[in-house]
Amino acid sequence: MKYLVDGHNLLFTGAGPWSSQTGRPLPEAPRILVETVEAFCRRRRARALIIFDGHVPRGFPIPPPAGECVEVRFSGSGASADDLMGAIVDEAPEGTVSWTVVSSDRDVRARARWESQKLLSAEAFADLIRDSSPPPRSAGPRARHRTLTPAEVDAWLKEFGFS
């Protein structure tokens, strides 16, 4: 499975670990979003291309990270993430589903539908990521309970004056 993701749509869902409690993206949100999508794709054995509008933000690794499962691009000046996504969708071989397009933008979704690509809203993708996250790990291994031997029972009974 290959996901073509509108990074800013996903950032502003307010639904992922990249968002503050108010729903506004954190300053380090693009980096957290990329790491979260990378972990999701690794678990799913999927790939993703995340496209953000504009230039690489301050504090974001340069060049943008290309993990084993995720590639990141910025549209730069004169183009939008929507334009880049449309061009990528147009390059898909006719009659084949090459991408699951993740966007809440009406025009991007219409273009993807026209090119017979799968669609997910940014909100649905954020839910999918959240729902497929592994459960939190426990603090440590669970203590094993064992039964007392007859000698130990006798020792405790004696300790408490019952024997």
Feature tags:
Rossmann fold; alpha/beta; single chain; 6 helices; about 160 residues; 5-stranded parallel β-sheet
In short:
This protein has a single domain (2-134), classed as 3-Layer(aba) Sandwich (Rossmann fold).
Helicity range: 25-40%
Cα radius of gyration in angstroms: 25 Å
Find the count of extended strands (DSSP E, 2+ residues): 5
Kindly, what is the distance between the CA atoms of the first and last residues, rounded to a whole number of angstroms?
69 Å
- Average pLDDT works out at 83
Oligomer category: single chain
CATH topology: Rossmann fold
Number of helices: 6
CATH class descriptor name: Alpha Beta
Estimated structural class: alpha/beta
| SSE pattern | EHHEEHEHEHH
Number of domains: 1
Provide an overview of this structure:
This protein is an alpha/beta fold and 163 residues long. It has one domain (2-134): Rossmann fold. It is built from six helices and five strands. It has helices spanning 7-11, 29-44, 81-90, 106-114, 122-131, 150-159; strands spanning 2-6, 47-52, 70-74, 100-102, 118-120. The chain has a five-stranded parallel beta sheet with strand order 3-2-1-4-5. It is elongated. The termini are far apart.
